[in-house]
Amino acid sequence: MNSVISLNGIRFLVLVLVQVLICNHINFMGYINPYLYILFIILYPTKNNRSLFIFLSFLLGLTIDLFSDSGGIHAAASVFIAYARPLILRSSFGVQYENYAIKFDNVEFGSKISYITFLTIMHHIIFFSLEIFSASKIILVLQKTLFSSIFTILLSILITIIFSRKT
After folding, report:
1. In degrees rounded to 5, what are phi and psi of residue 53?
2. Alpha helices of the chain — where are they, by DSSP H?
């Protein structure tokens, strides 16, 4: 139990630092900016307390907002995907999720990709819709969502492969 708490605490801090110190300063062509902090939400254990998880997701987003001066949009997008995560887990992993038998190091690669992709795209649509907040600029929202999602998904998959415990 303590190892799970310490692992998630370290993951929280490391992802906040990576996001604030590195990722927030990457901005290719005005559209591509990775949001790796959502890996905390993606990789959080499924068996843990859901209320605590949603609170931690809010705290994660709020911390990123404080460093980014973004007025709560990271917090809103983070809470949304934390709340929607069981639905995405069920659609990506099916019976494994129902039995709480998900270990991200042991799941099929295709299921892992679909799970990361769904959560990332949901996060980015909410995030960029709130950031731009104009119905007349829906094309810009979709462009930023598409390009940032691709970059975030590729980096997230790469990071999960590199830090996988499976030999």
Report:
1. -60, -45
2. 2-21, 39-43, 50-68, 73-93, 95-98, 109-132, 138-162
Residue 78 to residue 130: CA distance in whole angstroms: 12
CA distance 70 to 47: 31
Topology of domain 2-162, CATH:
Arp2/3 complex 21 kDa subunit ARPC3 (1.10.1760)
**Could you tell me which residues are beta bridge partners of residue 70?**
none
Nearest-CA neighbor of 14 among 42, 36, 43?
36
CA angle 26, 35, 135 (to 5 degrees): 95
Those residues of the chain that have pLDDT short of 50 are 167
CB neighbours of residue 23 within 10 Å: 19
